[in-house]
Amino acid sequence: MTATAVAHPNIALVKYWGKADADLALPATGSVSMGLDVFPTTTSVTLTDRREARDTFTLNGRVVDDGPLVRVERFLDLVRGMAGSDARAAVVSENTVPTGAGLASSASGFAALAVAAAAAYGLDLSERDLSRLARRGSGSATRSIPGGVSVWHAGDDAGSFAETVPAPPMAMVVVTINDGPKEIGSREAMRRTIATSPFYPAWVSSTTETVGDMLAACAAGDFTRIGELTESNALRMHATIEGAFPPIRYLTSRSVAVFDAVVAMRADGIEAYATADAGPNVVVLCRPEDRARVAGALDGFGAVIESGTGPAARLLRSEDP
Ligand code: DP6
Hints:
The chain is of the alpha+beta class and about 325 residues long. The strands form 4 sheets. The chain has a 6-stranded mixed beta sheet. The mean pLDDT is about 95. Helix content is about 35%, strand content about 25%. The protein has 2 domains: about 1-165, Ribosomal Protein S5, domain 2, CATH 3.30.230.10; about 170-305, Alpha-Beta Plaits (2-Layer Sandwich), CATH 3.30.70.890. It binds ligand DP6. The site of ligand DP6 has 15 residues, from helix 4. Its EC number is 4.1.1.33. This is Diphosphomevalonate decarboxylase.
């Protein structure tokens, strides 16, 4: 049995930073994101007939046999547990995020893997249950199952899933900046933030409130409010992370220059708002009609990529040869 699925990355408007339960991958707060329509990840899962000792994982034509394979195997163990199967699998994934673009590939990666693996192992899961499953691979993957703008609810295992919410038309411009120091991964950085940043409790309480405000702004179609909340929440996340010990700093001087350029754009009457994840790249939220102008204005800061709002993850085919 082979099943193939596609999923896209998402960029959080209200960030997920910190787990309430690491085993179940339950977040400390809710979060809200916009799915992108660029950089799909296409993944196929083929069940192997023989009882192989291990799964295999091929990413962009290269056989992976270290950390990422262990993460894929742990994820497949969950799927096998749900399906009552002990069949091993061959996972082949094509990730179109250009190398060095700095967009996390774990969101689209685990969303595509969740959809393909569920189908290959014969599980008929709802979008909600696929989202809960993707969560166990990587938190942000929860939000790459539904399309458009989505909220990922904080809650217990049954209640922590993502779903699409009504929102006005929006676009994003990704500005790629590759001059940062070697990054510390988000998993480890979250742990250190929780353990050592005195600002973390305030991050949790303020973000919980911001999720509610963001959902209200989305429902009202209030793009200006969505943008203001997005930029504010991103800066609060980075302030919280910078408050860890030893400190973690993801934004470089070039990242900050893009934030400044976005402020200047607003002074010129273009409604644009900046956000950034666990790295130096900056993503700029704007209205769809402004995206080419925003991309043009930010061209000098790094490679720019424009994106509209993306589709839900979906099964492309499932065949039993
Ligand atoms: C800064 O989803 O990569 O992008 O759950 O440990 O796999 P794990 O973390 P991950 O963290 C994403 C953090 C972020 C904010 C966000 O996407 O909400």
